[in-house]
Amino acid sequence: LVDAGLSSVLPLAPLTGDPGLITALVERWRPETSTFHMPFGEVTITLEDVATLTGLAIDGDAVIVDIPDEDWSAMCLRLLGQAPTDLGGGVIRITWLRDTFDELPLSASPETTEQYARAYALSLMGGVLFSDRSGGSVHLQYLLLVEDWRRAGRFAWGAAVLSYLYREMGRSALQMTASSSLGGDFGGWAALLMLWTWERFPHTSPLHAVTGAQITQDAVPRGIRWLPAQTRQHGDQFYLYKLWFDECPTFVVSI
């Protein structure tokens, strides 16, 4: 995972999205410009934000998947060593991955170790970085991205994650109504959106939920400094967040 350039994401993976905060943000998202429309002007998440908050590479090869000639079951067996019986259309359940590859055997061979690492990377991509709205499945096409670890290390993962998040926010913005709440119906890395908001709009952050001693100001990547906040119980505070963004008392220009 270090070779693939994904290790910086591991400590951030447990962070979950706040439905109220995400809904309030998506309400202000404009797909035409890929920006949030705020009272003081337009702002957006940049590649620099992604690199600073997550440590993912923003320079490198484009994250492109070439669909294989072999069928999905054969590819799954070749790269994971196992395949589910109900594999249809190349979609695999994340729960199956976690149950099947729960713990690496102590006597595992190098080949088996790589298979477990690929299974973990696949669940990371499907459940966190490129999650879809179901939140429970991932397409096996992502498995091809970690077939060769060194090739994976040349990918601009941060750029791919951001463009995917842009697309999902655009879809959500177009489908929202005045009375709708996104809840879990949101694709992309919701925690990245949340981290960016906490950094740029301090009045929305959960700083009150943790002590100053727990917040590490010089953490690398910077998103790690918010890990103590992951235990905060998020309520549906959509209207509170909406009010905050309507007023926007503070916006941090650089992080």
From TrEMBL:
Domain Aminotransferase-like plant mobile residues, every copy: 15-236
One of the GO BP terms on file: meristem maintenance
Lineage: Eukaryota, Viridiplantae, Streptophyta, Embryophyta, Tracheophyta
Name this protein carries in UniProt: Aminotransferase-like plant mobile domain-containing protein
Pfam families the record matches: PMD
